[in-house]
Every structure is written in C-alpha cells, then in structure tokens.
C-alpha cells in the first residue's frame, strides 16, 4: 500500500500541469503515507478489523444491488405479462418467454470462461471503457430506450460496480458529466431539459438507486414515513371530488342521502360544498405541517447527501449557467430540484416499499398522504401548475413560505469540491495495480460488444482510435449464451498501451524537490503508527521512538520484529542526516505520529458508524431481494399451474421435447411441443394445518377479531384439490365442522396483488395477500417440482 501510494503521488506530481511549491508536493505525498498508515495491512487492532468488515460489506452491497436491479427488471416485465395471463390473453410463445424469466441458474461447477486470448482482449477492452468514460457516455446517448436498462446494468453495476471505490465512482461521474453536457447541447427548449423519460433520465434515476443513495434515503426518510404509516386512519385527502364521495358514503351508511343531495357532482360543485370545505380545512393544515416536517428533515440532511448526487447537481447548475447565461436563480434551482426531488427523493416517498424504507405496503390513506407530500415537494422546485389539479392550489402557502430556503438548499447541494486531482492520482495508481477485476457475465460482454460494433463509427471514427482497434481485434460479438451458462466471471482489467510504474522511488526522485529523506521520514512515520496500532500500550505519552522500535524488534511476532529492526535503522539514518534530533526526543516526528494517532481514533469512530449504517442498508437490500424472489416464486407457481392444466411444460405433468433459442440478455425461450394431456387425476394435496399464533407471528394474519383468550383454539387448514385452487378452512378446536370455508384461486390472489389490494377478508380474520401467496407457494408449489 505504501509503495502504491508513493507511486500515485509521484505520478501526480510529475504529470500535473499546475505549478505547486515544494510544500504542497510534500503535503501531497505525506497525505498518501497517512493513507497507508490507516490501512489494515499487517495490523490486527479493532480499527483494522472494522475496516475489513466495512470493505467486505461494501462489496456485498455492490454485488447485491446488481442482483436486485436484475430481479426488479424481471418483476417489472412479469407484472405486465402476468396480467394478460390471468385474463387468458397471452399467446403460448409469450408464456414461454415469461417462463424463461423465471428459470434459475443451474448450480453446476462448469466454468464458462472464454479462452485466454479472448479474456485478454476483453480485459483490454473493458479497461479502456472503464478508464475512458467518454466512450460509454456516447453509447448511452445512442442506444434506444428499450436497450438502456441492459446497458445500465453493465455500466452501473459491473463496469463501475464497486460503489464505494473512489476511482470507479469518479470515473462514473465523469461519464455523467459527458452525458449531461451533450444533453444540454442538444436540447432546444429549456423547459424540457431533464424532464422527458429518456435514456439519460433513466441513467440518473438508476444512479440514485445504488448503495450510497439507498443508504441516504433510509437514514433520512425511513423513520418519518414509518411514523406516518402508524396512523392508518389519518385521512388527509383534499381532492374535493373524493371528499364528496366520502360524504355520500357516510350519509348512505347512516340512513340515506337527504333530499336534493346528489350522489354525483362536478369538481366545482364538490369544491363549493360547505361540508366538503369543512372536512378539507383541518386536513390541509395537518398536511402542510407534515410537509414542513419532511422538508426540514431533508434540508437538515445536507451533509448526508451522497457526494455523487451533489456533484451531479453541481454539473446541472454549471451547465445551465453556461448554456443559458440569462437563466434566473429560480429557473436553475428548478432544474436541480427536478433531479434531486423528482428523480431521487420523491419516488422513495411515493413508493417507500419499493425503496425498502418500510415493511409491507402503505394503506390507502397513507398512500394518498405520501403522494400529496411528494407533489408539494415537487412544486417547491418547479413553478406550480395546477391546470389539471386545481385542488392543490390551497397548498400554495407551503410553496410560497418555503421557496427561498428550498432554493438555497438546492444551491448548497452544489457546493462540493471537484475530484479531478484525486482521479488523476487514482488512475496512475491503477497502472501499478495488477488486481483490477470486474465480475461480468458473458451476455453482458456480448451485449456491450454488440452495441459498440453497431455505433463504432460515431464513437471512434478514426482508424487509429484505441477503442476502434480493440473492437476490431475482438471481432463480431458472439451469440448470447443460454441463461444457465450466463454466470459471472472474474475479468482482470489492464491497459494495452500505458506501462505500469516500475521504479517507484525513482518516480518520486524524478522531481528535485522531493528527496530521499522525505520518503524515509514519511515511511518511518507510517511504520511507527502501524507498530503502535499492533501494540496499543506503546501509545502512552511521551512517545519514545527508540523504545518503541526496540519493543517491536524483540516481540514474538515476526512481522513486528521486522518492522522494529527496520524503523530502528531508519531513525539512525534520519538522525545522521539531521532530519530529526535525538536531543529533543525527535519532537517533530513524535508530533506527527501523535497527530496520526488522534486522526485514527476519529477514523475508528467514523468507520464504526458507517459500518452500523451499512449493515442496516445491507439487511434492507437482502430483505428486498427476498421479497422480489417471493414475487417471482408466486409468478412461477401460477405459470406452472397454467401449464399443468393445459398439459404444457412442466415435467411433473407429462414429458415433452423442447428446443431452445436465445434472445436478449440471458433470456431463454423454450419452443415447447405440447404433449397430450395426461388422464391422471392430480392428487389432492393437504390439508396442512397452521395455528393462529403461527400465522399471526409470520404476518400472514394481518388483522384478527378473534379474542386473545381464544386464539390458542383457532387453526386453519389449507388443501389443494386441483393445481391452482385452494380450500381454506377456519377451525375451532373440539368442533367437527369448520367455522368457515372458502375456495380460493391463485388467479384471484395475483389479481388482488396487481390491483394493490392488501387484505383477504375471512370474516373473523384478514390475511395479507402477499404473505398468503408466499405461504401457498412454499407449501404447495415446492411439492410439485
């Protein structure tokens, strides 16, 4: 680590075009030595262990984020297709496409790696794409909206998939800068900038869904939204038409509508109704109080907003000022707010369950409140337009009152430093590394290669362009592989043209103003810090460097002995050179070591805090992944039943021969030949018994009217007389006949889930639709496979 740090600093000093004095260069190198001393190499203290756990956790979050992104794509596709299947309007080949989305990878041990020559070519190609983001930026502008999700998967979660590594993050942001600059250049109308659903807007939204953005949303919004959801009966509907419907419903429940009170009216009539006005008035006040509370929480979180989000805001402001020098501050703020609120914060408020901020789905009242809150926050960033939603006009006082401080907050978001110097250092450091890896699937490679070849004349028009040379050498993109073979491979990345930094010390010495003793001094400081981290009792003041070196040199640990002997020699050499003085007890070096130790103490607190925060984020991401898996399992169960009943597909219902063709990334289309229907009557499954306590504990019973002292005597049985149909019976111990019986079809449950209906009413108890689906899938469909 020390040598890599020195290499990066040397390269940066050598190649930087800015003129710096000796002090700044010495400081630059010193900072890198401090970074080296912070690392957990050959150290086993609490900080080192926490750093390793944090690094592992960040890798897991990055990996799991990609899995969730892929599952969400499948769920979005299946949501649309299953609706047609429920209504028996899906063609047979479409059913097979749905089936292919639900297939799992086989757990075989066969490697699907390309040969060595191909691996080297792909490694060169993807190194160039990663380290020169302008190529990907052009490609993102050229692809269609239908192609962008596939490309974004590769870019956001593979090419720059290490979401917490500065080099990859800064390269990704550089790509964003390219894309945004081109978007500003080609957009003719200011009002349409960053508004439309384009590949660029999809990119920006996808970026906000990465680990750091998810962590921010959870820490800032989760508690606020969960507190709101606890008040299930809080109705803040302010749309006069819907409030009027509430009045009608209440009157009918209480005995009927008065004479002359129409059941249905226009929006204008509803708005002028005194009963409606009286109901809306307190709701409006409560709604604005809640909106002010949400806004204050968001504004107070300025320092928590991820750097990348703020940097994109900064680019939007900078590009707007360059392209539209006469744009007002409010107009510029509206564009920044269009990204921060519209693309980042508001979607999480409107659908908190999709952003893993809450458990379960919000009720109807809560959903209405969250939607209204998001509209109010958006109106702060935009000039409010109420052409279609005049009922939002009464929220104008909230907008007027908060407009100035919102504009200030949006401008404050942009106040972050640039990363170009650090990226330059990171890039040079990368040249000295031999372990830059990405985890990428064959179909991601082939899809990216195919897009590059399709647009190469625009991306790299010159014959001598490095990208054009590499794409030409690789040749035509291979066909997509079947899903079961589309397993991630570790692809080492390395440069075809730049040479790694070989002689690190000579690189530093190439500039006259960094001496051999500068290097020796900083390396000695770094080693002393590592020794004290390994032997904390040596940190008691005053520090005696000879004693510390002697203690390490006579320790039982071989690594400490080596460090102790080495640093003892360094101290003598530095004394002889007059850099430090034994007579003042090496005061200069001791002060710097003490400063490093104080810094490490602060660092430990920060690492522990970040670790706790990310552990919570990782748990949430895993929970969301499990939810997506359960949804896919429900779809899989339904599709299996459809195919069983039609005599198509599942091997458990009669064999068929099939051939496979591949379309798209990892999608396997099965060209199935229907077999003759089996005459065998499917066996009844069950009944399976579940206690009231068990179902309540697992969240399957969402609401119950059974008195607590009787719940021990209540149980449910569920059986499946034919695939896809279930008989649910509610029993009371000691009685022969069930208290209640209902027939339930899987179609009905899936349809309820699609329509957002959360509860299944069994009179005495209400079941969660989603968790009931999970229970039926686990209990019955797993037995059919």
Automatic annotation (TrEMBL):
Residue ranges with Low complexity bias? 1-14
Against SUPFAM superfamilies, the record matches this protein to: GTPase activation domain, GAP, RGC domain-like
Q: Which UniProt keywords apply?
A: Coiled coil
Q: Does the keyword Coiled coil apply?
A: yes
Renumbered residue ranges of the record's region Disordered? 1-23
- Return the InterPro entries for the record: RasGAP_C, RasGAP_CS, RasGAP_dom, Rho_GTPase_activation_prot
Please give the PROSITE patterns that the UniProt record associates with this protein: RAS_GTPASE_ACTIV_1, RAS_GTPASE_ACTIV_2
Instruction: Give the source's domain of life in one word.
Output: Eukaryota
Gene3D superfamilies linked: GTPase Activation - p120gap, domain 1
Question: What residues does the Ras-GAP domain cover?
Answer: 167-382
The UniProt entry's coiled-coil ranges are: 40-67
Q: What is this protein called?
A: Ras-GAP domain-containing protein
Species of origin: Mucor flavus
């Amino acid at each position: 680590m020390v040598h890599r740090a020195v290499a990066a600093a040397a390269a940066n000093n050598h190649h930087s075009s800015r003129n710096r004095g000796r002090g700044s260069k010495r400081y630059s190198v010193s900072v890198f030595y401090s970074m080296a001393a912070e690392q957990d190499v050959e150290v086993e203290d609490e900080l080192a262990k926490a750093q390793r756990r944090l690094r592992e956790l960040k890798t897991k979050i990055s990996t799991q984020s990609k899995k969730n992104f892929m599952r969400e794509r499948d769920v979005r596709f299946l949501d649309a297709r299953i609706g047609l299947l429920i209504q028996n309007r899906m063609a047979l080949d479409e059913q097979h496409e749905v089936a292919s989305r639900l297939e799992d990878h086989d757990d075989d041990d066969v490697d699907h790696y390309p040969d060595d020559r191909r691996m080297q070519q792909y490694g060169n190609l993807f190194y160039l794409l990663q380290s020169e983001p302008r190529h990907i930026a052009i490609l993102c502008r050229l692809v269609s909206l239908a192609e962008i999700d596939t490309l974004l998967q590769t870019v956001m979660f593979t090419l720059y998939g290490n979401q917490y590594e500065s080099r990859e993050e800064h390269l990704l942001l550089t790509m964003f800068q390219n894309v945004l600059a081109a978007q500003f250049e080609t957009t003719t109308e200011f009002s349409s900038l960053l508004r439309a659903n384009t590949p660029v807007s999809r990119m920006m939204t996808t970026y906000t869904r990465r680990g750091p953005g998810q962590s921010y949303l959870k820490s800032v919004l989760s508690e606020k939204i969960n507190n709101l959801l606890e008040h299930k009966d809080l109705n803040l509907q302010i749309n006069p038409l819907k409030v009027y419907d509430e009045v009608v419903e209440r009157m009918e429940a209480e005995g009927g509508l008065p004479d002359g009170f129409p059941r249905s009216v226009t929006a204008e009539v509803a708005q002028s109704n005194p009963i409606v006005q009286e109901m809306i008035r307190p709701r409006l006040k409560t709604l604005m109080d809640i909106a002010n509370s949400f806004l204050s929480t968001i504004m107070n979180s300025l320092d928590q907003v991820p750097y990348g989000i703020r940097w994109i805001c900064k680019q939007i402001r900078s590009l707007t000022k360059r392209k539209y020098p006469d744009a007002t501050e409010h107009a510029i703020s509206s564009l920044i707010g269009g990204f921060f609120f519209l693309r980042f914060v508001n979607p999480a408020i409107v659908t908190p369950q999709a952003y893993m901020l809450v458990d379960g789905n919000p009720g109807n009242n809560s959903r209405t409140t969250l939607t209204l809150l998001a509209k109010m926050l958006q109106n702060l960033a935009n000039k409010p337009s109420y052409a279609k939603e005049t009922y939002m006009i009464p929220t104008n006082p909230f907008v007027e009152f908060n407009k100035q401080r919102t504009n200030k907050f949006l401008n404050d978001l942009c106040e972050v430093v640039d990363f170009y110097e650090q990226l330059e250092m990171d890039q040079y450091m990368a040249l000295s590394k031999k372990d830059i890896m990405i985890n990428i699937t064959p179909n991601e490679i082939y899809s990216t290669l195919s897009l590059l070849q399709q647009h190469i004349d625009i991306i790299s028009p010159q014959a001598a362009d490095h990208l054009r040379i590499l794409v030409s050498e690789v040749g035509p993109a291979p066909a997509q592989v079947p899903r079961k073979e589309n397993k991630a491979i570790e692809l080492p990345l390395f440069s075809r043209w730049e040479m790694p930094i070989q002689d690190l010390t000579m690189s530093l010495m190439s500039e006259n103003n960094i001496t051999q003793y500068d290097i020796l001094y900083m390396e000695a400081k770094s080693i002393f810090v590592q020794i004290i981290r390994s032997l904390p009792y040596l940190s008691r003041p005053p520090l005696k460097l000879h004693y510390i070196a002697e203690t390490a040199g006579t320790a039982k640990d071989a690594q400490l002995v080596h460090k102790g002997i080495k640093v003892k020699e360094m101290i003598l050499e530095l004394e002889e050179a007059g850099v430090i003085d034994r007579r003042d007890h090496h005061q200069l070096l001791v002060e710097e070591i003490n400063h490093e130790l104080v810094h490490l103490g602060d660092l430990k607190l920060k690492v522990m805090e970040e670790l706790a925060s990310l552990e919570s984020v990782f748990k949430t991401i895993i929970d969301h992944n499990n939810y997506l898996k359960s949804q896919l399992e429900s779809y899989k169960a339904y599709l299996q039943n459809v195919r069983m009943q039609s005599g198509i597909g599942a091997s458990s219902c009669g064999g068929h021969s099939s051939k496979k063709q591949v379309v798209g990334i990892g999608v396997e289309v099965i060209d199935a030949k229907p077999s003759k229907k089996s005459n065998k009557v499917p066996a009844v499954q069950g009944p399976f018994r579940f206690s009231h306590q068990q179902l309540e504990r697992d969240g399957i019973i969402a609401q119950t009217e059974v008195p607590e002292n009787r719940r021990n005597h209540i149980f449910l049985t569920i059986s499946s007389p034919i695939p896809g149909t279930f008989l649910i019976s509610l029993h009371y111990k000691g009685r022969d006949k069930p208290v209640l019986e209902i027939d339930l079809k899987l179609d009905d449950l899936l349809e309820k889930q699609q329509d957002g209906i959360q509860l299944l009413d069994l009179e005495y108890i209400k079941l969660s639709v989603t968790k009931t689906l999970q229970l039926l899938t686990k209990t019955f469909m797993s037995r059919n496979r």
